[in-house]
Amino acid sequence: MRDPRSIVITGASSGIGEELAYAYAAPGVRLALTGRDAGRLAAVAERCRGLGAEVEDVVIDAADWAAMADWLSGLDRRAPVDLVIANAGVSAGTGNGTESEEQARRIFQVNLDGVLNTVHPLLPGMQARRRGQIALMASLAGFRGMPGAPAYCASKAAVRVYGESLRGDLAGQGIGVSVICPGFVKSRMTAVNRFPMPFLMETDRAAQVIRRGLARNRGRISFPWPMVAAVWLMAALPARWTDALLRQAPRKG
Asked: Which UniProt keywords are listed (predicted)?
C-alpha cells in the first residue's frame, strides 16, 4: 500500500518499530502506537506529532489477548486501519545455560501470540472493506534453527510461514500481507548480543527498506542480501554439513 493513512505499529517504543513510526509520521496520517515502556513510547509519540501525524499511544503487552482485542476493535471503528505492522517481539537465547521453559513460553507468547492478537481483531474490518495491508515481523533467524536461540528461531519461523500462508488466503479479498525478515539491525534487542553481528544495519535504513517493500506489496521483505544468501544456503544444505559449524557459533544471552 503506497499511502496508508491509518497505521497501527506494535512494539513502537524502540528499534525498528520506533523508526517505522518516524518513517510514516506526516500530516494527514493517524498513527496508533503500542509498546511496553511508557516513557519511551510517549517520547516516540511526541516526535511523531512534531512531524505532523495524529498519534494515539497506548501501553499494552501484545501478549494480552483481551487488551489488544478491545483496543484494536475500538480503534478500527474510530479510524479504519489501512496498515497494521505486527512488530512487537522479544529475544533471548541460551548464552546463560539451557533455555528455561519460562523463557521459551514467554518468547512464543509475545512473538507468535502477539502477532495473532494484533492481526485478528482487525481482519473483519479489512475484509468488510476489501482493503488493507498486514505486515508481520519475522526474521532471517526463522529460516534455520540456531542452537543458541531455539524458541526465538522457532517463533519467527512460525510467523514467517503463517504470514506467507495468510497472503495467499487474503489476496482475493483486497488485503496484502507481507512478511519482514531482517538480519541484524541496531536496537535494544541486538545491543545485548556479546558476539559479532555481520552486516549490522542502522535502524533508520532498515525502516526505509521495509517501507519501500510494503509500498510495493512485496510478499517477503528480506535484508541485507548477503545475510539472506547465507541463511538460504544454511537452510538448503544437509543438516549433517551445518550442525557442527552451528554448534560452534556464539550463544545469544
From this structure: Oxidoreductase
Active-site residues, by number, are: 152
Please give the Cα distance from 166 to 171 (Å, whole number).
Answer: 8
Measured CA to CA in angstroms, residue 2 lies from 96, 115, 222 at distances of 44, 23, 19
User: Packing angle between helix 15-24 and helix 203-215, nearest 10 degrees?
Assistant: 60
For residue 96, the model assigns a pLDDT of 63
Which domain does 26 fall in, by range?
A: 6-247
Strand-pair category, 83-86 with 132-137: parallel
pTM comes to 0.89
What's the pLDDT at 189? 61
Q: Flag whether 1 is in a domain.
A: no
Which of 147-175 are b and which e, b meaning 16 or more Cβ less than 10 Å from the residue's Cβ?
Answer: ebbbbbbbbbbbbbebbbebbeebeeeeb
- Whether 209 is in a domain gets the answer yes
pLDDT at 42: 98
Query: Is 70 a domain residue?
Result: yes
| pLDDT at residue 188, rounded to an integer | 62
C-alpha neighbours within 13 Å on the C-beta side of residue 38: 1
CATH number (domain holding residue 99): 3.40.50.720
Let me know if residue 253 belongs to a domain. Answer: no
C-alpha cell of 53? 501525524
Taking 70 as the pLDDT cut, the residues of the chain under it are: 93-97, 187-199, 244-253
